[in-house]
Specification:
Elements: E1 6-10, H1 34-45, E2 49-54, H2 59-66, E3 75-80, H3 88-91, H4 100-105, E4 115-119, E5 122-123, H5 126-136, E6 145-151, E7 162-169, E8 175-186, E9 192-195, E10 201-204, E11 209-217, H6 221-235, H7 246-255, E12 261-264, E13 271-272, H8 279-291
Parallel strand pairs: 1-2, 1-4, 2-3, 6-12
Antiparallel strand pairs: 4-11, 5-13, 6-11, 7-8, 7-11, 8-9, 9-10
Length: about 300
């Protein structure tokens, strides 16, 4: 039996700011989406299992797209992120999933080894996948956890606000603090701000390291995340916009010295789609990579 080397992709988001199913929105003339390039990169560097985290209502679209696309060495797994596994007393409060931390928990029953986790609508580049694969499956770092760190200034949208995990690292590139920041935007003056819980605009330096949800985990994360999720449900003021973020799980983990997270650096350029108006610039950038033969015109 082959050793599982899994990349899980969070594709269950509703895309409220985008207005439609952005996970499969075409960005090339050959009808490829950002997620296709992530899958291609992952397979190229050695990942042999692709796990798609989906909503029930989009499952068939993904199956139609990926069934029978790959040879027998690649396994495709579909998991559903919904509220069916939520304690009964909370089910009536919300219909949509609880965010990225909840997406992580959907993997508990299908993961058997270290694994990577990414967003469906972010383009990370081959180097990022190479770095993560090497870190996760190197026997010397067997029980370690990782994340790709990016400079905030390189992760903004010119078409609206974004959310990012603000990271603080030590001299050994170990994560010592992470906080989810929302409503981040670049002002006309060039200053970057986010809105805090008190609804105040707080300045963020442009070189701030942020997480773009490219994580590498050991399976121990599930035990920690499960406890955190139960506590979240008990103590949060739960509403339609309440989110259970991976950043919260990671922050609890490092603050309580349960596991460490090392930042991986990469030369890859990040591109992302938050709004429909982001599509043109992302499409042009990836088309240029195809012209440079970084990617073939036909991925599969």
């Amino acid at each position: 039996m082959k050793q599982q080397k899994a990349l899980a992709i969070m594709a269950a988001g509703l895309g409220s700011r985008f207005g439609s199913l952005k996970q499969l929105h075409y960005i090339t003339p050959n009808y490829y989406s950002i997620i296709d390039f992530s899958i291609y990169d992952a397979i190229q560097v050695g990942f042999n299992t692709i796990i798609l985290i989906l909503r029930e209502e989009i499952l068939n679209e993904f199956k139609d797209r990926y069934e029978n696309k790959f040879d027998a060495s690649i396994t495709i797994v579909y998991v559903i992120q919904d509220t069916k596994n939520i304690p009964t007393k909370y089910k009536h409060l919300r219909k949509k999933p609880w965010g990225t931390g909840h997406a992580l928990l959907t993997l508990k029953e299908v993961i058997t080894n270290n694994f990577a986790l990414i967003n469906a609508d972010d383009f990370y580049g081959r180097s990022a996948f190479t770095k993560m694969y090497g870190a996760l499956f190197n026997s010397k770092t067997r029980n370690s956890n990782f994340f790709l760190g990016y400079a905030l200034k390189n992760t903004l949208s010119s078409n609206g606000t974004v959310s990012r995990g603000e990271c603080v690292i030590d001299n050994n590139d170990l994560l010592i603090d992470i906080n989810e920041r929302t409503e981040i935007k670049k002002l006309s003056s060039g200053i970057i701000t986010y809105i805090n819980a008190e609804n105040n605009n707080i300045i963020l330096p442009s070189e701030t390291i942020v997480s773009m949800n490219f994580w590498g985990f050991s399976p121990k994360i599930f035990e920690i995340a499960t406890k955190q999720f139960n506590q979240f449900l008990e103590t949060s003021e739960i509403g339609e916009k309440t989110e259970f973020y991976i950043a919260k799980i990671v922050d609890y983990t490092i603050k309580n010295n349960l596991m460490s997270f090392k930042m991986l650096s990469t030369a890859s350029q990040w591109y992302g789609i938050t709004y429909k108006s982001d599509i043109d610039s992302v499409s042009k950038s990836i088309s240029e990579l195809i012209k440079q033969n970084v990617y073939p015109k036909e991925l599969w």
